[in-house]
Amino acid sequence: MKTYIVKDYDEMSKKAASILAAQIVADPESVLGLATGSTPVGTYRYLRKWHEEGVLDFSGICTMNLDEYRGISKENSQSYYHFMVENLFSHVNIKRENTYIPDGTRKDSGAVCREYEDLIQRKGGIDLQLLGIGRNGHIGFNEPSDCFTEKSHCVSLARSTMEANKRFFEKAEDVPKEAYTMGIGTIMSAEKILLLVCGSDKAEAMYQTICGPITPEVPATVLRLHKNVIMIADEAAMSKVKSE
Ligand code: GLP
Questions:
Q1: Best of 13, 39, 136, 154 to mutate for ligand 1, by most ligand atoms within 8 A of CB?
Q2: Contacts of 233 (CB under 8 A, 6+ apart)
Q3: Span from the CA of 117 to the centroid of ligand 1 (angstroms)
Q4: Is residue 207 included in any domain, yes or no?
Q5: Spatial CA neighbour of 11 closest among 238, 235, 241, 242
Q6: FRET label pair with 22: which of 48, 100, 127, 229, CA 20 to 30 Å apart?
Q7: Percent of the chain with pLDDT strictly greater than 90
Q8: Which CATH number does the domain housing residue 134 bear?
Q9: According to DSSP H, which parts of the chain are helical?
Q10: pLDDT tens, 3-19?
Q11: Is the CB of 42 inside a 6 Å radius of any atom of ligand 1?
């Protein structure tokens, strides 16, 4: 794992955006795996800016998002679809038909997940997967578990994840309890992975990810087995690793 320790959120965002930008320039038909949450917001802001300045062309890019809440529609302002439109898609020249996110309104979870996996295969796999990390070490919505999941699937969200995500919803009862997510195997089959970690509330997850045993109890630990991971973490997220 190649690790960059940066001062703060802005430095992390700029560096992450430049790695994504390099991918887009090197292969204008890249398949990018994208993530949501507060962590990548600044990264998308830089990508938008560079597009506006004429540096980045998204016309040949295809995106596959990591996950989506089950039971909420694209129009819901808390859907990950809506997040992607607001933070990136509506600001760049990406073809909307080349942006893929599991459909949270579909109830037939087996079919949704199978089709998503087939789609990733048909697109030739993911060239660069962007990832954040949950406070409990989850990636995508792969929660701590007793085994690493292979493919896209439907998950019940951990109580701590619902607690962390309730800040985005008006009422705690509105937080979805389930989601569709790429599996650990799907994530691990990406050519390259870019992991972003920011803030002291991720320090324990970071410590476990880097120093703990590789275990599905802390899903991000599996990334140590991937041959091409770049991690950008700020000093606050690294505080526990450095103090050991
Ligand atoms: C959610 C997403 C993850 C994300 C995590 C951390 O659970 N499914 O993909 O990495 O939250 O979010 P944040 O970046 O807001 O801390």
A1: 39
A2: 3, 4, 5, 6, 12, 196, 197, 198, 206
A3: 21
A4: no
A5: 235
A6: 100
A7: 91
A8: 3.40.50.1360
A9: 9-26, 41-52, 80-87, 109-122, 159-165, 184-188, 203-211, 239-243
A10: 999 999 999 999 999 99
A11: no
pLDDT at 160: 86
Q: Measure 139 CA to ligand 1 centroid, in angstroms.
A: 8
Domain that holds residue 150: 2-198+215-242
Question: Tokens standing for 66?
Answer: 């990591």
Q: How many CB atoms lie within 10 A of CB 22?
A: 11
| Domains: count for the chain | 1
pLDDT: is 35 or 160 the higher one?
35
d(CA 44, CA 13): 8
Task: State the Cα–Cα distance between residues 66 and 60, nearest whole angstrom.
Answer: 20
In a domain, residue 231? The reply is yes
- pLDDT, tens digit, for every residue of 161-172? 888 888 888 888
Is pLDDT at 65 greater than 70 in this prediction? Answer: yes
The pLDDT of residue 216: 97
Q: Of 47-56, 164-173, 189-198, where does mean pLDDT reach its minimum? A: 164-173
**Gap from CA of 135 to ligand 1 centroid (Å):** 8
Quick one: tokens of 227? 């041959």
Please state the atom number of ligand 1 nearest to the C-alpha of residue 181.
8
Q: Which amino acid residue places its CA nearest to atom 10 of ligand 1?
A: 132
Residue whose tokens read 């085994």:
147
